[in-house]
Design brief:
It is found in: Cell membrane; Membrane, Caveola. By secondary structure, this protein is α+β, with helices and mostly antiparallel strands. It has helices spanning 108-151, 158-163, and strands at 10-11, 21-24, 51-54, 61-73, 91-101.
């Protein structure tokens, strides 16, 4: 039995209680060509498109696509004659899985929250930053004007000056 993944992308038997399960690209794409010699209909030369579109600020996936093939390693057992037709140690594809996260399938409530967090909150933050800076500048100017006004000599009306 294989204990390390030499032919395919990922050996998952450690997480499945020692079961001989292996994950690979569909049709054993980018794997050892010997894996496909016993099968018809597998086309490993096909280019499988994997992608993940991440939100630029928060880093969570907005859309993604991943395809994989689940394979089981055949082990000959005397009591089970059904596996006699397979070579011992052969990887047998048992499932093809395609996981797609489409940005059009995200609920509108979530889209609104993402929009709010992406555009509205930063706009409010920017407005508060520049608004507080402008308020501070206006306050400083008014304080300077008030201080200058209090410290400047008061001019008495001419009528009061003549009576002295």
């Amino acid at each position: 039995m294989l204990t390390t993944c030499i032919y395919t992308d990922l050996n998952v038997n450690g997480g499945l209680y020692g079961s001989p399960v292996f994950l690979s690209h569909p049709h054993f794409h980018r794997a050892d060509p010997n894996l496909t010699k016993n099968f018809t209909g597998l086309h490993p030369e096909r280019d499988f498109k994997y992608y993940v579109n991440l939100h630029p600020t928060f880093g969570f996936a907005i859309s993604a696509r991943k395809m994989m093939q689940v394979n089981v390693q055949v082990q000959k057992v005397k009591e089970i004659s059904q596996v006699d037709m397979f070579e011992d140690g052969m990887l047998l594809p048992i499932a093809y899985v395609e996981a797609v996260l489409d940005d059009k399938s995200i609920p509108q409530d979530i889209v609104d929250i993402i929009y709010l967090a992406s555009f509205t909150v930063p706009s409010i933050k920017l407005a508060l930053q520049y608004g507080s800076l402008l308020t501070a500048i206006i306050t400083m100017i008014l304080l300077i004007l008030m201080i200058r006004r209090k410290s400047s000599p008061k001019v008495l009306p001419a009528k009061l000056l003549r009576s002295n």
